[in-house]
Backbone:
């Protein structure tokens, strides 16, 4: 998607601290981490928001929790714990309109 910063990262047009990549997902560190571990798990196919997830979108996102689990293991936080967050829309504070999962960990997180 033209002008989408995460599509540009997927295309290698913008650098990112990439930790993992397969044919469907890319994982990199958030540029402005809110926690000691703050990763973004991003499907390579562009979907702007959870609001846009149809059957095809479900296919695109299939397996994303498995990637999250493996990243938590890689970062050594499986046992200490982690939080997975998806923001959708203005009130949730979504700023990048390309669906992504935040993986937050490395310190105690305030209860929701
Ligand atoms: P959202 O609020 O849309 O769920 O979160 C977007 C996240 O992407 C923010 O935490 C922000 O710091 C991060 N982000 C925005 N632009 C970039 C970038 O160019 N590179 C990386 N690594 N993270 C970004
Ligand atoms: Zn995109």
Residues:
């Amino acid at each position: 998607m033209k002008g989408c910063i995460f599509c540009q990262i997927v295309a290698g047009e913008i650098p990112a601290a990439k930790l993992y990549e397969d044919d469907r997902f890319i994982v990199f560190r958030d540029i402005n981490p809110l926690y000691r571990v703050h990763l973004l798990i991003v499907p390579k196919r562009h979907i702007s928001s959870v609001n846009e997830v149809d059957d095809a979108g479900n296919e695109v996102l299939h397996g994303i929790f498995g990637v999250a689990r493996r990243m938590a293991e890689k970062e050594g936080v499986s046992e200490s714990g982690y939080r997975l967050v998806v923001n959708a829309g203005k009130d949730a504070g979504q700023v990048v309109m390309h669906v992504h999962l935040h993986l937050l960990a490395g310190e105690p997180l305030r209860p929701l």
In short: Helices lie at 5-10, 55-61, 64-75. Residues 5-105 form a domain with the HIT family, subunit A fold (CATH 3.30.428.10).
